[in-house]
Amino acid sequence: MTISVWRYSHLALAVSSFLLLVLASVTGIILAFEPVLQKSQPYRSDKFNELTLAQTLPVLKKNDAEISELSVDANQFVQIKGSDANGKNLTAYIDPQTGKMLGVPTPQTEFFQWVTALHRSLFLHEAGRFFIGLTAFLLLLITVSGTLLIIQRQRGVKRFFTRIVRENFAPYYHVVLGRLSLIPIFIMALSGTYLSLARFGLVATEKVSPKIDFDAIRSKPERTLADFAVFQNTRLADVQTIEFPFSEDVEDYYTLKLKDRELTVNQLTGDILSENHYPTAVLLTNLSLDLHTGRTSAIWALILAVASANILFFIYSGFAISWKRLKNRVKKNTYSADESRFIILVGSENGSTFRYAQFIHQQLLTLGEKSFLTELNKYAVFPKAEHLIALTATYGLGDAPTNATRFVDLVEKYPQPQPVRFSVLGFGSHAYPDFCKFAFEVNQLLARQSWAVPLVDIHTVNDKSPTDFGLWAEAWSQQTDLPMPVSLELLKAPTPDLETLVVTSTTKTAQPDGTFLIRLQNSHNQRVTSGDLLAIYPANDHRERLYSIGVVNNELQLSIRLHPNGLGSGFLHRQSPGETIQARIVNNDHFHFPKTAPTVVMIANGTGIAPFLGMIDRNTQKTPCHLYSGFRESVSFDLYRAFLEENRSAQQLTNLHVAYSREGEKQYVSQLIARDADFIAKVLATKGVIMICGSLSMQKDVIALLETICQTKLGKSVSFYQSHGQILMDCY
Amino acid sequence: MTCLRKIGWLVLALTLFGSSVSVAQSGTTQYKCMIQMTNYMGEKAYIAVSLMDGQGAYEKTLYVLGSDKKWYKDVKAWYRALGKKTPNISAISGASVAGGDRSVIVLEIDNAKLNKDYKLRFESAVEDKEDHAKDIEIPLTTAGLSARSEGTGFIRYVRFSPN
Question: Which residues form the signal peptide (chain B) (predicted)?
Fold first, then answer.
């Protein structure tokens, strides 16, 4: 997969060059302050940009000093060299307008000389220059591979600067700062590489001597400097250096080295004797120097300093990310794949999902179970497997993480010989549109396999939430009767405080497997929303039972089927009005009534209707609601009939469809859905939401049916709608 | 003509035996010297201009183009001749000079050495390239100081003019 190629090259390049990069960055930061310090000196004339040579040169000529050379440096300070009135060597800054001496240039301080030499050549002359040049080139490649990684991560060039979800310090700032300093670092690396190439003569920057036809030189008509056309047309700002004629002989001339060309000028007549445009390579060398050193702009120099400092941060954060990724890779398994009863498969892009998998794995090993942990790509035939747990993240545009790309093919290729109960746990963030899409695909894929038996409904973990993970662990542990005490040590979720609820009414049931409604009042004014779960501890031990809450008349209403010897249902059935129970309300965000959906379709069987009752009760803004529910007999429905009819006339419920599996037409709720397939497709197409609550087997049927509807009528997979929050499920 | 010569001698006698200050000053002459480099590729050249006696022995440093002492040892013959007695050359040193460029310096030459079997030696060195111990040697004569002298190394030519 391409993503890995770029990531590995990004890392490999960084590893191979980081020592020199650290050195170059540190010295680079220091050197960036040299132009800043220089520019703070008061040698720049205010009129600098307006002056022409016809104005400056005559002024200088009047000076006592005899000038041999004038140069304009990157700070736009004008410097002259020559000899003073006493014939002594002279170098000074002058004001180009008045010719007044402003000061004597100080040579580069020994400190900056030392740092510059270290930055350029490591004090190793040619060898050092080569390694520094190579480092600049590697930095260029790192920048390019980094850019591609960002594009991939952001899923497209256009989304390059869209928001990034903050997960952890190092990866977050690596990407955020990477995007910001990408351009300065790229320019720095490119110009550095170019300068090295130029230094080693790999780009032609040969000097050309002016070709002057000395026979054609005239000494008439003599003009004053101010009348030379070429001086009138040349601004001081375009000058690099001017070499003055060595003597008054007409064959000695002015040499004007401008920014883009070199001119020689007859010192008497002002005729242009020769003109050489610099080759592009020379112009590029100058541009590279400007960009690489920041010598022309203090602001750019400071940007370069910040970008260099960022390189240091990238080295730190990049290695921190890689270290974490390596650390989280699969450790050696105690038991082999062939002998293990529990198989844990992981799909992880940067290793954080492995932490959760490791936790489950260790927990099972502690319990004396044989558990095998591996990547989704290592899927094979597991002859002794009874349980399969797939934990997977989603990468990019709903794609499989790198170590899960072959999973789909492998599952088709290697069916398990014995029935295996599976559970899928998706990791992701709601901040991305394709939330846990790959996990939903894995779940769908497994559900289609004849050997696969769903154990618990697919669960998703948003932003590494311990609560979300805890929900799965509780559900899984309930089904397997194996404790999975998640929250406590590893995930550091605080031990939940139980609250006291008062039973306000209960319908009781006479049948041993009948359904009953119980209403509870919570003493605190704690926020609770229909779709949340109530966790009760009937035996005051780790055994927890979860029930869907419907909030009706500001009370918590549970709909419960009484199981013979049922721990939770029996406990609740024994409660009478006025009694209190200890329980915990579990926020179940993903199954709340959608705030903005144009239409909501509710699908339930049996007691799965509970949360929908509360939602309908609360639907005072009259969002169109269509309830499809399935029961065994009409008696089971009688509990809800009056309430639902009342709401239908109040337009809080739009449509009610009921199927009875043991009476009349003997229908299942999925058959009602199949009948209204066109309507269901229209709901999904118009951004409506479908909510499913009830048994897992019903959910499996309905999802299979929805898959067909989506594929045939909408041309998309059901997982698309699942990941876009248009299909919400809470089944058990 | 003889009259002029007499006046000349008189002036000379006056300057030599006059006030002590004028004696010191009149003992030297300043020459403007232009060094034109070849179009070589590479770092800027360091050039030492030394006064050598008739036997080719080092006498004195007249000027150094190049201000970073770190590279002085690359100008090998001159650096060796300096030995331990490094003179204070900060007053007679200036910027190094790149290929294709020229540099104009002022050399102060003792009149007593003129036309007396002394030579001006220009030694040039470029980092990671060869060192030209005798890039140019010019006899310290009136004729030598008026002609244009071709170099053999990084220097293309040297020209003088009295200041």
Answer: 1-24
List the single residue in B with minimal CA-CA distance to A117: B70
- Decide the pairing of beta strands A66-72 and A78-83: antiparallel
Q: What is the pLDDT of residue A589?
A: 78
* Residue A134 shares a structural domain with residue A186: yes
Which of residues A119 and A64 earns the better pLDDT score?
Answer: A119
In chain A, which residue's Cα lies nearest the Cα of B159?
A246
Instruction: Return the closest-CA partner of residue A388 out of A360, A353, A351, A367.
Output: A360
Residues of B in contact with A69 (CB under 8 A): 103-104
The range of the structural domain enclosing residue A141 comes to: 2-40+116-205+286-324
Mean pLDDT of A536-561: 84
Give chain A's domain count.
5
Alpha-carbon distance of A17 to A139, in angstroms, equals 8
Find, among A391, A81, A505, A583, the residue nearest to B32 by Cα: A81
Task: Please state, in angstroms and rounded to a whole number, the distance separating the CA atoms of residues A15 and A20.
Answer: 10
Average the pLDDT over A538-548 and give the result. Answer: 76
Give the DSSP letter of residue A90.
E
> Which of the listed residues A428, A445, A480 is the one where a domain comes to its end?
A480
Higher local confidence (pLDDT), A19 or A158: A19
pLDDT of residue A166: 66
The C-alpha angle with vertex A404 and arms to A398 and A406, in degrees rounded to 5, equals: 105
Q: Are residues A672 and A656 in the same domain?
A: yes
Closest-approach residue (CA) in chain B for A109? B68
Verify that A655 and A521 share a domain, yes or no: no
Q: In angstroms, rounded to a whole number, what is the distance separating the alpha carbons of residues A114 and B70?
A: 10
Mutation target among A86, A111, A124, A207 for the B interface, most CBs of B within 10 A? A207
CATH code where residue A572 lies: 2.40.30.10
Q: Which of B104, B105, B107 to mutate to test binding with chain A, by most A CBs within 10 Å of its CB?
A: B104
Nearest by CB to residue B106, choosing from A88, A208, A246, is A88
List the domain range (segments joined by +) for residue B117: 28-162
Are the Cβ atoms of B30 and A83 closer than 8 angstroms?
A: yes
Quote the CA–CA distance of A639 and A656 in Å, as a whole number.
Answer: 15
- Say whether both A21 and A165 belong to one domain: yes
Co-location of A712 and A647 in the same domain: yes
User: In this predicted model, what pLDDT tens digit does every residue of A687-710 receive, in sequence order?
Assistant: 999 999 988 788 888 988 999 999
Do A69 and B104 lie within an 8 Å CB cutoff?
yes
User: What is the per-residue pLDDT across A478-507, written as a single tens digit (0 to 9) for each?
Assistant: 888 888 776 545 544 344 578 888 999 998
Q: How far is B39 from chain A (nearest CA, A)?
A: 6
pLDDT in tens, B44-80: 999 999 999 988 899 999 999 998 888 888 999 999 9
Q: Which of B32, B37, B39 to mutate to test the interface with A (most CBs of A within 10 A)?
A: B32
Nearest chain B CA: its distance from A81 CA (Å) = 8
**DSSP assignment letter at A168:** S
The whole-angstrom separation of Cα A456 and Cα B8 is 120
- State yes or no: pLDDT of A341 exceeds 90: yes
What are the structure tokens assigned to A397, written together? 């545009």
Q: What is the mean pLDDT of chain A?
A: 87
Whether A243 and A263 share a structural domain: yes
- Residues A318 and A335 placed together within one structural domain of the fold: no
- What confidence score (pLDDT) does residue A543 get? 64
Nearest CA in chain A to B34: A246
* Residues B159, A246: C-beta atoms closer than 8 Å: yes
Asked if residue A142 belongs to a domain, the reply is yes
The average confidence (pLDDT) of chain B is 82
**Per the domain annotation, does B67 fall within a domain?**
yes
**A710-to-A31, A447, A725 alpha-carbon distances in Å:** 62, 17, 15
Number of domains forming the structure of chain B: 1
What is the reported pTM? 0.60
Is B68 in Cβ contact with A113 (below 8 Å)?
yes
Residues of chain A with C-beta less than 8 angstroms from the C-beta of B30: 83, 87-88
- Which DSSP helix (H) or strand (E) runs through A239? strand A239-243
- End of a domain among A324, A349, A383? A324
**Is the CB of A208 less than 8 angstroms away from the CB of B39?**
yes
ipTM: 0.78
